[in-house]
């Protein structure tokens, strides 16, 4: 541990409790012997949350199913009105919720607030969508017939979310699921129960306003299950949950995906990423430096979309690397609630140990590591300097997602070789190319280019806006959430054929005269 700049943060317990009280989280949600809610900023336990047991989880799922039976008949634009009110409540409580995200996850202030902005954005998107759940009219081969496609609500949507975007990712799913006519049951990460309860309280304000405007609110429309993995399993196994959208590690997806498939339920999986960028000879290096630094160091490397691998062309390697190293050396690591700090803590000791394990493995392969050391703070708070790892080959830890600020840098000479390495890992979430060469940029975006769900030019791989579909291929799980037509994943499609004639012509020229 280096004592160069010790990080001393005063207790955040009183402030966290104040925010929870102010937002109206019911006292019954807390219990002295319950699940500990910690802050990675100080390492302290902020409070304890009452756990939900399997029986209560089942009751909540069944209530959500009953709520769905009523909610599906509410006109979609009216459902959108509830989400509009939720967006208003989020605007009104952005400061408190953003602050709580920073306290509970350790995000710097602007990223804590940005997370709530992402929630507001998806609410706006979903409100518009509530008047656009379009189906098709399809040409039919039969005279006096009409064929069309309609989209119907699906049922109870289970949402399993990760600690790193503790509320935004829930809102991507919740806002769409609600306008699509579904009920929602949420199993948040055990590491971020307080932001989940705060979000539930803010949603309750929207529900109260919706009811006060004279709308019927089905009881149980939205539930939060505070519990461990066993509670997540109740959600995954329940026959009245036709869809589970799960965000987290590939290991989690390997558990959840097959269980859902076995009962023919749907899944939307957003799992591990091992995102890369290629820096080409023509790259604008000033822009590249900023893009790489934000994507690799931001959020202390704890985004699914964090930049983890960098392929730099040999002609610009010596121009870029010293600048990058100096950015790594000077970036301020510390109390994320303080102005000017860009890197907050890792979520917990486990994350720190995994980071050190990956760095040790890289060193054993001959890599040269700059940074990565722990910065002195309270025993239970884990602050690290971001690590820049120059490594000769893509192997070992480079092929895995380590949820920490480690950037593996590799030199390349041929574009095709860099592209092959770029795609040569099991994950496929997000990707970038920095180039001013049209051919390289277009090739990267083409069918022969990046194999990821997100591919960017002259922008880092992280920090996507909600309008696009979010998700990735291969071990990332294949699911898409948020924008574009991701809403279709939350509805069931029906093909309808209607005969307005007086005869019954059969398709394919089949005759059947009785
Ligand atoms: C995640 O890390 O799970 O694109 C989501 C981004 C954010 C969302 C990340 N909008 O980095």
Automatic annotation (TrEMBL):
Pfam families: Aldedh
Entries under SUPFAM superfamilies matching the protein: ALDH-like
Residue positions of the active site: 270
Presence of keyword NAD: yes
Gene3D superfamilies in the record: Aldehyde Dehydrogenase, Chain A, domain 1, Aldehyde Dehydrogenase, Chain A, domain 2
Domain Aldehyde dehydrogenase: 35-493
EC number: 1.2.1.3
Alphabetical keyword list: NAD, Oxidoreductase
Protein family per UniProt: Belongs to the aldehyde dehydrogenase family.
Quaternary structure (record): Homotetramer.
Name of protein: aldehyde dehydrogenase (NAD(+))
Native organism: Ancylobacter crimeensis
């Amino acid at each position: 541990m280096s004592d160069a700049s010790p990080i001393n943060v005063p207790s955040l317990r009183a402030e966290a409790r104040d925010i929870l009280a102010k937002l109206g989280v019911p006292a019954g949600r807390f219990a002295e012997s319950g699940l500990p809610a910690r802050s990675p900023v100080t390492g302290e336990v902020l409070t304890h949350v009452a756990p939900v047991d399997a029986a209560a989880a089942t009751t909540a799922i069944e209530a959500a199913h009953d709520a769905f039976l009523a909610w599906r008949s509410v006109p979609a634009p009216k459902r959108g009105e509830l989400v509009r009110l939720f967006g208003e409540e989020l605007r009104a409580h952005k400061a408190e919720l953003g602050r709580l995200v920073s306290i509970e996850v350790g995000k710097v202030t602007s990223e804590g607030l940005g997370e709530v902005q992402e929630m507001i954005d998806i609410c706006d998107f979903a409100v518009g969508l509530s008047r656009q759940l379009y189906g098709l009219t399809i040409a039919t081969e039969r005279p006096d017939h009409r064929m069309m496609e309609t989209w119907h609500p699906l049922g109870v949507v289970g949402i399993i979310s990760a600690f790193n975007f503790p509320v935004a990712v829930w809102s991507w799913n919740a806002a769409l699921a609600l306008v699509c006519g579904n009920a929602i049951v949420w199993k948040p990460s055990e590491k971020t129960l307080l932001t989940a309860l705060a979000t539930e309280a803010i949603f309750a304000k929207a529900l109260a306003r919706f009811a006060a405007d004279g709308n019927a609110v089905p009881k149980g429309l939205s539930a939060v299950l505070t519990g461990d993995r066993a509670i997540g399993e109740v959600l995954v196994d329940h026959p009245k949950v036709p869809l589970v959208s799960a965000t987290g590690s590939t290991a989690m997806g390997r558990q959840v995906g097959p269980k859902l498939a076995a009962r023919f339920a749907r899944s939307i999986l957003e799992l591990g990423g091992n995102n890369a960028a290629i820096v080409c000879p023509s790259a604008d290096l000033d822009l590249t430096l900023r893009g790489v630094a934000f994507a690799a160091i931001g959020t202390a490397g704890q985004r699914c979309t964090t930049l983890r691998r960098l392929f730099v062309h040999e002609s610009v390697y010596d121009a870029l690397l010293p600048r990058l190293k100096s950015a790594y050396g000077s970036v301020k690591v510390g109390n994320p609630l303080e102005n000017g700090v860009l890197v907050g803590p890792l979520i917990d000791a486990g994350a720190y140990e995994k980071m050190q394990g990956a760095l040790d493995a890289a060193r054993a392969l001959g890599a040269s590591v700059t940074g990565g050391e722990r910065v002195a703070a309270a025993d239970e708070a884990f602050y690290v300097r971001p690590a820049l790892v120059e490594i000769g080959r893509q192997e070992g830890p480079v092929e895995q997602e380590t949820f920490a600020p480690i950037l593996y840098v590799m030199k390349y000479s041929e574009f095709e070789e860099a592209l092959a390495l770029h795609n040569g890992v099991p994950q496929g979430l997000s990707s970038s190319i920095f180039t001013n060469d049209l051919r390289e940029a277009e090739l990267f975006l083409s069918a022969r280019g990046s194999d990821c769900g997100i591919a960017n030019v002259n922008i880092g791989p992280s920090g996507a806006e909600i309008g696009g579909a979010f998700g990735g291929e291969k071990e990332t799980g294949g699911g898409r959430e948020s924008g574009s037509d991701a809403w279709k994943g939350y509805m069931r499609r029906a093909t309808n054929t209607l005969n307005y004639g007086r005869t019954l012509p059969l398709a394919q020229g089949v005759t059947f005269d009785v």
